[in-house]
From TrEMBL:
Signal peptide (UniProt feature, chain positions): none
InterPro entries in the cross-refs: cAMP-dep_PK_reg_su-like, cNMP-bd_dom, cNMP-bd_dom_sf, RmlC-like_jellyroll
Spans through the membrane: 111-131, 151-171, 206-226, 232-258, 290-312, 332-353
Keywords for the protein's UniProt record, in alphabetical order: Membrane, Transmembrane, Transmembrane helix
Keyword Transmembrane helix: yes
Matching Gene3D superfamilies: Jelly Rolls
GO cellular component: cAMP-dependent protein kinase complex; cytosol
SUPFAM superfamilies on file: cAMP-binding domain-like
Ranges where the Cyclic nucleotide-binding domain occurs: 396-497, 544-621
Protein name, as recorded: Cyclic nucleotide-binding domain-containing protein
Amino acid sequence: MDEQLVLTAQTLRLNPNVQRADMSGGVSVLKNVPARRYLTVTLDQWNLLRNFATPATVPDVLRAVILNRSCVPLREYYELILKAQRAGVLRLERQTEPDERARRWAVPLNAWVPIIFGWLSLIAAVTLLITRPFTWPAPFPAGALDVFIGWALLCLGLSAGSALAASTLVWGGGEIYDPKLNLIRPTPYFGVNLEDACMTSRLTQVGVWSAKFMPVTLTAALLWWYQPAWGLLHVIAVLVILRPGAGGVITPILSVLFRGQILDTHKNMSFSPNRRWKIRLKFGVARVKAVYVAARLVWGAAWCFLLLSVVLNATDRKVREVLGSGEYWREAGQYFAMAAIGSLLVFIGRPVARSLWVRSRARYREIVQMLHRWGAKPEEVSNPDAIARLLADSLIFRRLPPAERAELVKRAKPQVFKAWSLIRKFSDKSNEVGIILSGGVAVYRRMKSGRAERVLELGEGDVFGAHALLDTGRPEAQVRALTPVIALILPLEEFQQRVVAKLGVPLANDLVHKVPFLRRLSFCRSWHPQAVARFAQISSVIAYNEEETIVAERQDSHQFYVVYEGRVIVSRGKRILSRLGPGGFFGEIGLLQNSSAIADVRTKENVRCLVFSKADFLRFMTHNPLVGLQLEEISSQRLGHPLFPLNSHSFDVR
């Protein structure tokens, strides 16, 4: 299902068939019993999911947990929702799911039995493999019988391991699924699904994995002592079963003992922004434990030594002779270094190359746009087809019927302005409106001190010259070309009649003035144009006088502010924290933490701000996950610690 749809519009509810098992370290494993799917969460994450006991949308729950101060980090929140929905812990209305039935298993086995005998047999098998001379089977056809007997014993050992593991799992309170014969294998065996072990204690999990290898290692030790000719396949099987990588039985045992359960929100990312290599690396580092890494390295080195010993024994060479040779280490060191460098390049090469490609492509587009603006010819950009495409893509004119857009073009005339030329002066009376076909312009306001301050940068599809019509409080504006500009010039009355009258003054002002202002801001630059337009529509322009306090420290925060014109000072006590000009914003920390303001904000001169109410701000933020991530990151940087979850460092939280 579409990620954006799940995170913004779909109604989800907590599956009533969820079973919960508490583990050590404040971790719980949730099991969707009918579908046999599992989700590992923290206690805070489980409490968050319980908000869906009553059907709700993801934005509704996010607003609720922000207001009651129980929100987890937003990347974790969205990852949790997607993982829970795919595991069936959260379900859509009228969603159906498969029904996986557990099988009855009548013989339980105390976990200590396979742990003790399994590890004793493992030690015995490894010792014999290293110390006993290697025995090859007799030549064909006599040796074929030896290999066949060893193969049959190996099949029985693998089947017995699965059966003992199932008995151990039942003893620990787990369920058995999918018992079946796996016939299409080099070594056919009877197997069962042991995924339910994650719902049991550490002792049971170690016992289950120990039971898996116990019959094979025990048989290998006995054969290597009494009948080595039958043990060739068991030697290979022991090396494969004990391998330190994925699929080996020792790795999950080390994970259970030294790392514990891994949260599903920290692995195999589902939320698309979490798939970036930097984020995956961050989550990967977060789940690393030094003791576990050391145990994996020790086991990996031990397995490599075991493999080397078996190979050397099979070729009638001594381990001491090879490892004690300086020539061997000189040659092997080169190969080890090459393998390490190759692994590092494979690990970091792809994400680094992708990051460079994305940056290069964005830079290339900027250069192409700049060259197009400086080299555009009037006859190319002012032909009817090009103008029709431009107006159809414009947020302002796409709302008009095609016939109305065509009539608008007929009544306009193209005009060319040189780079850096003054298109409109402060003293000029606004009688015409320009629609930019190519190029960029800057709009300036005159402040009370007489200083001209740049407030807008406009590009293709934007409109200049409509300030007197749409912004009657500040009708004076100066417009200067930043590049060669080609524009359609339209009488102000025509623009008012054919555009403003159809859209309404508030919406026209939002699209003509607020949208170009907002999309230049750093935190809005990556938004979809429709999101920027919606953000502009929920804002109000409020003017403040010089030396007026906009926000007072420790007072309840109910708005989010973006400086539209002028400058403000952010301070705490007598200490000035920052000075913000047009595009600067404040108030988001108090809204996201549902707390009081953490600083004073007062004007340095006459100021106008775009003001967003708390309800509108939270509604917009919760329906736009990328916006929420940006605001959380910026707020965390300003605070000097993570914004979520709230802790003793958060303001007025006790």
